[in-house]
Structure formats: structure tokens, C-alpha cells
Amino acid sequence: PKFKELDKQKAAAEYIMDNHYDGIITVGGDGSLKGIKALAKLLPADMPIGFVNVSADSDINGDQSIGLLTCAEEGARVARGLFEDGFTHKRIYILEMMGNRGGQHALHSGVAARAHMVIMPFFDLPQDFWSQAASRLNDLRHGLIVVAEGFMRQHRETLAHKPSASQYVKELLLEAGLKD
């Protein structure tokens, strides 16, 4: 987080120049991409700079990260365990997964685990959806809901208690009639 500060970026650029780097290759996700973009402004224009996207939640629009499918399979393994436990013990699980903006990790993992619902970051679901979902889950008495961490983020941040995405989904379902 401190790399967002200009003095930290300048110190990194100075270190790179003092050590005569020939180029920079950054490996990471969205934060790393933002960091190298900021750093590039402080480096010579002719310095080669590369980026390899390995974001587990594939949050860089228009690009699929290396390892996305491996991460999704591991996420699906966890989600399948919750699905099976929920069925056996008559529980409803709400699993919050990576997915700040794109939600690819949550989508792939949730579908592979046969989740009853996968809620993406950009969804804006009407009240009747929540009522129907609560009613159906009450009838089933078990369920798995996968929600991407970015779901309704801007709205949630305006709430006094600042719930996580999974807590917020639970609150919406309870308000709509889900029996806890």
C-alpha cells in the first residue's frame, strides 16, 4: 500500500537507475499493474517494461490471468465441500470468493461446485429476486451461494456497519424471508 506514495515510487525508480537495470518485468495482479504504470512514468521512456498477469481473480478487464483455471479449480474444491456439507446437514452456506470487479474466480468456482447461486460484482438484483431466492432456499433447506467480494461494494461502504459481501447477501436474504 505504501507504494501508492510518490516518494516510495521515486525511491524505487532511483534504485532501478542506480543499479543499471536493463528493463523491468512485473508479475502480479491489478495492484501490481497499477504500481508498474506509476513507476513507468518515473523511468526513462526507452526502458523496456513488461507485465505478466497472474491475478487469481482475473480482475484485469480484457485479460485472462495465468493460473485462473487452477485457482478456480481449487476454489471449486472448497465450494464443493461446502455444498456437500450443506446438503448433509441441512445448511445454507454463503461463500465469499475473490472477484473485485470481474468475478471470474467466483463464477468459475461456483459453477464447477454446482452452487445454487453465483452473485457477481456488477449484479444489481431487485427485491423480488431476493424474495424468490429466500423462498426457494427455505424449501430446499440447504444451499450454496457464491458471492464475489466486489458485490455492491460502493453501496456497502455507505452503510454504517460496512458488511462484507457475504454478510450483506445474508442480510438481504433474511430481510426477504429466509429462515435462519
Largest sheet: 3 strands, parallel
Residue share in helices? 40-55%
Unreliable residue stretches: none
Distance between the termini: 38 Å
Gyration radius, rounded: 21 Å
On the 0 to 100 scale, the average pLDDT is 92
Order of helices and strands: HEHEHEHEHEHH
Across the major sheet, the strand order is: 3-5-4
The rough form would be described as elongated
Tally of contiguous helical segments: 7
Kindly estimate the percentage of residues that lie in beta strands according to DSSP: 5-15%
**Class from secondary-structure proportions:** alpha/beta
Oligomer: single chain
Number of strands: 5
Any descriptors?
two-stranded parallel sheet; alpha/beta; 3-stranded parallel sheet; 7 helices; 180 residues; single chain; 48% helix
Layout: helices, strands, pairs:
Blueprint: H1 6-18, E1 24-28, H2 30-40, E2 49-53, H3 68-89, E3 92-97, H4 104-112, E4 117-119, H5 127-140, E5 143-148, H6 153-158, H7 165-175
Parallel strand pairs: 1-2, 3-5, 4-5
Can you walk through the features of this model?
This protein has 180 residues and is α/β, with parallel strands linked by helices. The protein is built from seven helices and five strands. It has helices at 6-18, 30-40, 68-89, 104-112, 127-140, 153-158, 165-175, and strands at 24-28, 49-53, 92-97, 117-119, 143-148. It has a three-stranded parallel sheet, with helices on both faces. A two-stranded parallel ribbon has the order 1-2. Helix 1 crosses helix 2 (30-40) and helix 3 (68-89) crosses helix 4. It is elongated, with a radius of gyration of 21 Å. The two termini are 38 Å apart.
